[in-house]
Design brief:
- There is one protein chain.
- This protein has helices at 2-21, 23-36, 50-70.
- The chain has one domain.
- It has 71 residues and is an all-alpha fold.
- The longest helix has 21 residues, at 50-70.
- The chain is elongated.
- It is built from three helices and no strands.
- The relative contact order is 0.25.
């Protein structure tokens, strides 16, 4: 079971790094995807939260690594 937590930790770590290091690229990709979808959504409010979400993903990945290596 600890290999699954390690894989999850790497997934959260890569997502956290993407949100933390390149929030502008993530924002552009999100705008591109939402243009293709049929509903309207205001992204300008969400751009401020990328740093916070990246930090939360880092914390989750650290927790998963600790759990996977402690067993």
């Amino acid at each position: 079971m600890h290999i699954a937590n390690t894989i999850r930790g790497f997934i959260f770590l890569s997502a956290g790094l993407a949100l933390f290091l390149t929030p502008d690229k993530v924002f552009q990709f999100q705008k591109y995807v939402l243009k293709k979808l049929p509903f309207k959504y205001n992204l300008e409010k969400e751009q401020k939260n990328y740093l916070i979400i990246g930090i939360i993903f880092f914390i989750i990945s650290i927790f998963l690594f600790v759990v996977s290596f402690s067993k």
